[in-house]
């Protein structure tokens, strides 16, 4: 009995020791539990509500009961021309904007990492657009694009070039949106790429230099493979955010002219509030959600297969 008692831990001998031992082992879970429960409450309930709304026809009159339509709202997507236009515009914006942001962000990161490391103030200046609220960015670019008194047309006038409507022109509206988005979010790519470059090992580059590899060869064979996880995260985050574009379009163009800049987020807003059809808006929102999940899963699998 004495030997058995001596083999027991102090925690087990004390009253309530087993509970304290369990709490100590699960301390991390206990500390995170309140936050996790709050997040689940803030996400699960809206998600269930959105699924429920997507299979109903909802009248703007709160006294009219919801009419169950099953997959009717999702089938409606196939014949909705406005949805097709918004989907095409969103895809075009996402592909062009994210590609330009990635190339500029990576180029700036390589430039500052190799030649301008000591210019810390320049790095800070480059990150300022990313820190500004999207609404402030949209209003700023609205003033820049203003046809009569905007800075951009003032520059065009002084250079002797024809003035443009920019955000109001059918051919230039989407370009104007992309330029504003690139200005704001290129620093995000730049910051991630710069952090990735700072973490690269030195030894492979020294060995490559001794073997006579050129700078381009080192970039292609060493830098890009090493940066692949960072590139995957940066592109994934930017694509997911670009698919939810709303602020710039809402303030700069309102989806016009001629629906050239109408994107999915703006169309969801119009369907829900202007056309008073929240059930159909919920169905479009679920489409965007599922498309984002499928695209993200496919992209991550492709990045793993490319290793």
TrEMBL record:
Record localization: Cell membrane
Alphabetical list of CDD domains matching this protein: TM_PBP2 (cd06261)
InterPro entries in the cross-refs: MetI-like (IPR000515), MetI-like_sf (IPR035906)
Keywords of this entry: Cell membrane, Membrane, Transmembrane, Transmembrane helix, Transport
Gene3D superfamilies in the record: MetI-like
SUPFAM superfamilies documented for this protein: MetI-like
Membrane topology term: Multi-pass membrane protein
Family of the protein in this entry: Belongs to the binding-protein-dependent transport system permease family.
The name this protein goes by in its record: Sugar ABC transporter permease
